[in-house]
Design a protein that fits this description.
This protein has helices spanning 3-13, 31-41, 60-71, 76-84, 98-104, 106-115, 132-141, 155-164, 187-195, 211-220, 228-235, 240-255, and strands at residues 18-24, 46-49, 92-95, 118-122, 144-145, 147-149, 169-172, 202-205, 223-226. It is an alpha/beta fold and 257 residues long. Strands 5-4-3-2-1-9-8-7-6 form a 9-stranded parallel sheet, with helices on both faces.
Length: 257
């Protein structure tokens, strides 16, 4: 069991529904302050994007954020250095792509992330059948590998994915790239399929953009992941205080269904 399993399992067992906002590292010079604002707003964990030039799972908003971060000179080393300087008090989960960690070196990447206080990692373009080397590096570093279940994932593969996922299972609400959308999509059905085979916490993401959607997601799941709606505000110049207020609204909706 990883540290992330312990932290998120305790959260679930205590009856709290998790709010997990996403922020692209390096998107603005004050991105460290924005992470602090997310915590102040009520985040239980934070998904931190490491920018990549070809983010195939991400829609236009997060692609724009990744390009802005890269243009500002953001690197793997600059991200882990900034994270290591912060004391946020909530679990951090890195979200990036295979090229980033393979270029850096699998064991080195996993170790540096963990040293910076990151407890988990999501690599959406790494297939279950190709997990071996990365998952071994992550396990050795106590860095949980979080896997995804999509609406089209066959039942037998759901069981295999969930068995190997650590910390939580990312329940993709839509067969789409990231981005704001209406409703909950197929999130409830995906969560039901995950829960049929495991007690690992299931968090719904992709398209969760409003307090109402966050509330709906956490009625059926253990947590909600909010990305593009938040990143859009950051790209449009929202202050840390405004970001905190947005997250606080999500938190209140989850806590008062």
């Amino acid at each position: 069991m990883t540290t992330l399993d312990e932290r998120l399992g305790a959260l679930r067992d205590g009856g709290r529904r998790a709010l997990v906002p996403y922020l692209m590292a390096g998107v603005r010079p004050d991105w460290g302050r924005l992470l602090e604002a997310l915590v102040a707003g009520g985040a239980d964990a934070i998904e931190v994007g490491l920018p990549f030039s070809d983010p195939m799972m991400d829609g236009p908003v997060i692609q724009e954020a990744a390009l802005a971060a890269l243009a500002a000179g953001t690197t793997f080393d600059s991200v882990v250095a900034e994270l290591a300087s912060l004391d946020l008090g909530v679990p951090l989960v890195a979200m990036t792509y295979c090229n980033v960690v393979y270029h850096y070196g699998l064991e080195r990447a996993a170790g540096r992330l963990r040293e910076a206080g990151v407890l988990g990692a999501i690599l959406p373009d790494l297939a279950l059948e190709e997990l071996g080397e990365w998952s071994a590096a992550g396990d050795d570093a106590d860095l949980a590998t979080v896997l995804m279940v999509a609406p089209a994932t066959p039942p037998e593969r759901v069981a295999a994915v969930v068995e190997r996922s650590r910390g939580f299972v990312y329940a993709a609400a839509r067969m789409a790239v990231t981005g704001a959308a209406d409703g909950l999509g197929d999130g409830a059905a995906v969560v039901a399929r995950i829960r049929a085979v495991s007690r690992t916490p299931a968090y719904v993401g992709i398209g969760i953009a409003s307090p109402e959607q966050a509330r709906a997601a956490t009625r059926v799941a253990d947590g909600a992941i909010v990305g593009s709606a938040l990143v859009r505000r950051v790209l449009d110049g929202s202050s840390p205080e405004e970001v905190q207020s947005f997250v606080r609204g999500l938190r209140e909706a989850i806590d008062h269904p």
